[in-house]
Each structure stands twice: as C-alpha cells, then as structure tokens.
Amino acid sequence: MSEEVTVTIRTGWTFSKAIEHQEGSEYSVIQLRDVRTDQLDSIHFSNLAQTNISASREIRRLQNEDVLLIAKGPTKHAIYLDDVPTNTVANQHFFILTVPDKTKLLPAYLAIYLNSKPVQDWFARNGGGSYQSTLTKKTLLSLKLPTHLTLHQQQELVDLNTSIANEKYLYHLLIKQRQQQLDKFSNVVWEQLNDK
C-alpha cells in the first residue's frame, strides 16, 4: 500500500474447528455466511454465532470504523463497520483493515475503493489459488491507495454510495412487493381452476 497513507492489516481470529453457537457466550463471530452483498446492511449482527474463546494471547475485537475484507472466494467484498456490538470478532477468512490517520483516508471510502471494479479486477488477477482464490496479506500490502483525493471528495463518494445503496434497497422492496402481487393473483387463478 502507498507510503503516504498507512493502513494496518491483520487477519481474523483462527478457529481450528466449526463454530458451534452457544447462546449467551462472550463473543460473537462474523463468518463468510454472515456477509450479505445484496442488501443495505451487509452484516446482521443479531444473527451471528456466539461462542467462548480461550486463548493466551490478546483477542482483538472489531471496532467501529474497521473495514472487513473477505480474503477467500471469488469476490473480495469489503464492509465498513460503523455499529459493531461489543466483543465481536471475525474469523480467519477476513482481513481487518484499520486507518490510523483519518485525516488522510476515510475508512468508509476505503471500503468503497476496495469494492470498486478496478480493485476487484486487481484482486482477481493477484489472488492465489485456482478453484477458490485467496488473497494474501503480502498481496494486499502491494495495493495502491487513492492518496490524491481530498477528504471532501472522499466524503462525497461515501454519500453517493449511501444514496445508491438506499435506492437499491427501495427497488428491491418494490420488486418483492410486485412479485408478491403476481404470486397472489396466480394463486387465485390456480384455486379457481382446481375448484371446478
């Protein structure tokens, strides 16, 4: 990554086996299955698996303004975190990116940049593995960052992205309602045909 802007990168917590949900446990864990790219909210925190973690080293919890980046799979989707519940961690299939100096780079814009088509294409070219590509920390560190944008320009792009996300969400709701109307009519027609 660029020398002008520093972004710290760490991997999520490594779990040696499948996470079994234990209600009332100390930690909530974000897994790949929890990420939704088709809805306004990328992660529904209330649906996360809960578990206890025993470790001799520090358990680094997710913080507001962290950026989660999927490291494994065809799409390296990034998620800006702005309302993280206490004691939430991500598993080993994510990178956690933190921007120490927010006067140079807005974390919310960093997520937008990582999700942009040119960067996603770059990830596809540079991700290792043939069947299910995996992004390495070394590769991610070589990604150039948009240091030439002012904070005002970055915020404008963040606002535009939020507006687009809201429009997509509303269109999704409208399409769902229209489909329900059609399904309801189709059911009436079917019932009429089978009542004879």
Biggest β-sheet description: 4 strands, antiparallel
Distance between the termini: 70 Å
Which percent range describes the beta-strand content? Answer: 5-15%
Mean pLDDT: 89
| Helix/strand class | alpha+beta
Shape: globular
Oligomer: single chain
Q: Secondary-structure element order, as H and E?
A: EEEEEEEHHHH
Strand order of the largest sheet: 1-7-4-5
Number of strands: 7
Helical amount: 25-40%
Instruction: Return Rg in Å.
Output: 20 Å
Please describe what this structure looks like:
The protein is of the alpha+beta class and 196 residues long. It has two domains: 8-147, DNA methylase specificity domains (Adenine-n6-DNA-methyltransferase TaqI, Chain A, domain 2), CATH 3.90.220; 150-196. Helices cover 35% and strands 13% of the residues. The protein contains four helices and seven strands; from the N terminus they run βββββββαααα. The protein has a four-stranded antiparallel beta sheet with strand order 1-7-4-5, covered by helices on one side. A three-stranded mixed beta sheet has the order 3-2-6, with no helix packed on it. Strand 4 and strand 5 (78-80) form a beta hairpin. The termini are far apart. The mean pLDDT is 89.
